[in-house]
Structure to design on (111 residues):
């Protein structure tokens, strides 16, 4: 996982070689915190935003990542399976899939 500040994008290279590019506005729109998704949500919903800055990306073991945003949202965890399902590239069409992602799933990834 690599943050490209010039593009405001997080790039992830997966074990199968696929590269996902997540612009920060896209990631923040799918913010995984309870304030955005609810405490017992089983599906994500996209929330329009003004593109707050990504301040940090904290790995949560081999499970996922916790993004810290400049607007104070920092308690949600994206599993790697969720991130892969949310890939916005034309091949993956993550926007359509992301709403169907079941929270709490696991997947493998490559840094």
């Amino acid at each position: 996982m690599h943050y490209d500040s010039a593009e405001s994008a997080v790039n992830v290279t997966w074990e199968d070689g696929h590269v996902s590019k997540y612009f920060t506005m896209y990631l923040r729109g799918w913010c995984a915190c309870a304030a955005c998704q609810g405490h017992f949500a089983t599906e994500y919903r996209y929330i329009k935003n003004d593109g707050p800055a990504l301040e940090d990306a904290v790995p949560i073991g081999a499970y996922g990542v916790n993004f810290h945003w400049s607007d104070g949202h920092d308690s949600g965890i994206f599993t790697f399976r969720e991130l892969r399902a949310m890939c916005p590239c034309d091949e993956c069409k993550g926007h359509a899939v992301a709403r169907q992602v079941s929270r709490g799933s696991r997947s493998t990834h490559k840094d």
